[in-house]
Amino acid sequence: MxxxxxxxxxxxxxxxxxxxxxxxxxxxxxxxxxNKANTQSDTFRKSDDLFAIxxxxxxxxxxxxxxxxxxxxxxxxxxxxxxxxxxxxxxxxKPAKSNWFVAYHQDLTISVNQKxxxxxxxxxxxKQNQFAVQPPSDILEQNFTIRxxxxxxxxxxxxxKVMSGSHLNSVCRxxxxxxxxxxxxxxxxxxxGVMIMRPLLMHASDRTIxxxxxxxxxxxxxxxxxxxxxQWSEKYSN
Length: 238
What we know:
The chain has a single domain (3-222), classed as q2cbj1_9rhob like domain (Jelly Rolls). 23% of the residues lie in helices and 29% in strands. It has helices spanning 3-13, 24-35, 56-59, 64-67, 70-80, 137-142, 176-181; strands at 15-18, 44-46, 51-54, 85-94, 102-105, 110-112, 122-127, 130-134, 144-149, 160-164, 183-186, 194-197, 203-205, 214-222. The mean pLDDT is 92.
């Protein structure tokens, strides 16, 4: 793998795509665990438009060794170095008939164990005993997300579209001028491939229009120590 090229792409464009990180046997094992899961848990959300599992690695711990493989860990170390750990994991299943879309946005919040008055931590929200907060921008700038694709994904079944290079503006709003100055890219990812992106990259997802499923495991990584009394609500290192 040309790690230097991918590293440059992440730095310049805010994202990159690797093919063939997971093979068919590995994908089959992951899906087998998901398909057998008890969907009555509070961390599950299921509707005609979406099937999601929040705190995926904690909810289905048997998936952890299947997802955090030696190959994936070596990729992370080669691109970003050592010391990173998972701070959020979500499974998204966008069914073939799904009609939902996501407008352009940045991923500006992290999940923590409690609400506390800490300098630089703002815009608190709480949902189902899960606290989210916007941390200082330097944490967001250093974090990264890996999206593991369990289906072939393109612009017709909800592949992410991104504003290339928009992560370099730090925390910002997308206006008409930004749209004209930035290059919009659909991030096509084949089954078994991964997309790596910075959370400050402007990204969106369109409706599905080709009757094909889109299943993705979303992993957010950090190596930041949070100021006391805050702790990551979901921290997984292996």
